[in-house]
Amino acid sequence: MTSYNVALNFEDGVTRVIQCEDDEKVTDAAFRQKINLPMDCRDGVCGTCKCFAEKGTYELEFYMDESMSDEEAEAGFVLTCQMIPESDCVLRVPTSSAACKTAPEAVEGEVLAVETLSETSFSLKLKLAKPLGFLPGQYVNVTVPGTGQHRSYSFSSAPGSDEATFLIRNLPGGVMSSYLGERAKPGDQVTLTGPMGAFYLRPIERNQLWLAGGTGLAPFLSMLEQLAELGADQPIKLYYAVTRAADLVELDRVNALAEKIGNVTVVTVLAAEDEAHDRKGFVTDHLSAEDLCGGDCDVYLCGPPPMVDAVRSHFDILGVAPVSFHYEKFNPTETSAEAA
């Protein structure tokens, strides 16, 4: 029997991925998996279950004009009580996860490997008790063994696997950094809670400009991994900016994925003045109006707050606004990121 993954993105940042069977309506599938999407009628009459479909193909059965107009349907709005997926879908649900009597999913994980990639970064690989559904670019809370605390990290691996990887910044004295650098060992148990976050890859319909600062490369690795399997028709330009050449971790992996996808251009930028490199300084020293394709592009940015603020100001200076701009700021205290 055919089934499809439907990602429900709630307005509080929580995402739950449900499985919808062939010819099953989304509301019925959600209820079957103990998620109470808003609903008053089940008949396409009240409009209570109206959501926005960001991705996927589907069939809409009966609905009344009072519940949803034809113009709204053409724009991508759906009534989940009348929506039958015909592919994997992403829905934006205009209410909180708590209101739908659900919460971020918790999945147990086992440490498989920790690798020190540079003085500034670690790679963490986990074996999950079961695959954790997420959208490439999203993050989870990961418990730090022996501390009773957790930290938030973006996946650097593709969705749908029972193994997960993370690219983690080494912050001296940080709770997770101290664990990874001093006492982590294979077999350690952690808990992943999520996924969460509004920073995730939308359908690629135009030129893409991706900007990664340091370990902000992680979500882009997840995106590239998915596109290496699904393909991408539009060109993608990825700027990868770090301080020193040693910080250009996972570059071989990035280049291999870019070659497999076929239309990805990778540009590296180094900030350190005492190292030789083709492009020195900051990303904004090299970003031009041409990179923004006259505004006909989607921009994704993941990096420290000064980078995000500088890029936003740079767009104003260039006088070009992209069709969409999605960003996530690192929090220097290893806690949650700010996404938009």
Structural features, described:
The protein is an alpha/beta fold. The chain folds into 3 domains: 3-100, Ubiquitin-like (UB roll); 105-196, Translation factors (Elongation Factor Tu (Ef-tu), domain 3, Beta Barrel); 207-339, Nucleotide-binding domain of ferredoxin-NADP reductase (FNR) module (Rossmann fold, 3-Layer(aba) Sandwich). Helix content is 17%, strand content 35%. It is built from 6 helices and 19 strands. The protein has helices spanning 26-32, 70-75, 175-182, 218-230, 251-261, 305-318, and strands at residues 3-10, 15-21, 50-55, 58-60, 77-79, 83-85, 89-93, 105-118, 121-128, 139-144, 149-154, 163-169, 189-196, 207-213, 236-242, 264-270, 297-303, 324-329, 338-339. The strands form 4 sheets. It has a 6-stranded antiparallel beta sheet, covered by helices on one side. This is Benzoate 1,2-dioxygenase electron transfer component BenC. It comes from Sulfitobacter profundi.
